[in-house]
């Protein structure tokens, strides 16, 4: 889903070319906790890293892969590869984030993510093996 946004301001005093602005993704805002805090993180995954174990976040997250390729999987969605220059997002809350591993065995993957969460609560909340088993029918079929 995309919405047209205006990103140009006339500048009669400009002596250099204007900035080039490209909207990479535009989505309706998922619920944001109240109160909330925003964090911007840079994550570097070593070659072959499986990333973090299944978890959830207290609020939404929006990210951009700077370098490499990340395997990304949310509950109810098939896993996908997000490559450098591509974006990802998740609603947070009750949705399980299954994968965020490096898809490359011989190079680092780096991404930047903006997260909204509840102040004083962990950024990542682990999901138990029992809950994973209980919610197994909600996971998309594996490739």
What report would you give on this structure?
The chain has 143 residues and is mainly beta. It is built from 1 helix and 9 strands, in the order βββββββββα. Strands 1-8-3-6 form a 4-stranded antiparallel beta sheet, with no helix packed on it. Strands 5-4-7 form a 3-stranded antiparallel beta sheet, with no helix packed on it. A two-stranded antiparallel ribbon has the order 2-9. Strand 4 and strand 5 form a beta hairpin. The radius of gyration is 18 Å and the shape is globular. The mean pLDDT is 91.
What is the compact description of this entry?
This protein is mainly beta and 143 residues long. It contains one helix and nine strands. The longest helix has 6 residues, at 129-134.
Share of residues in strands: 25-35%
Rg, alpha carbons: 18 Å
Ends distance: 26 Å
CATH superfamily heading: Jelly Rolls
Average per-residue pLDDT, rounded, comes to: 91
Proportion of residues in helical segments: under 10%
CATH fold-level name: Jelly Rolls
Name the structural class: mainly beta
CATH class: Mainly Beta
Number of domains: 1
DSSP strand count = 9
Which features characterize this protein?
Jelly Rolls, 34% strand, 143 residues, mainly beta, globular, four-stranded antiparallel β-sheet, 1 helix, three-stranded antiparallel β-sheet
How is the secondary structure organized here?
Layout: E1 37-45, E2 55-56, E3 61-67, E4 69-74, E5 80-83, E6 87-90, E7 97-102, E8 109-117, E9 125-126, H1 129-134
Antiparallel strand pairs: 1-8, 2-9, 3-6, 3-8, 4-5, 4-7
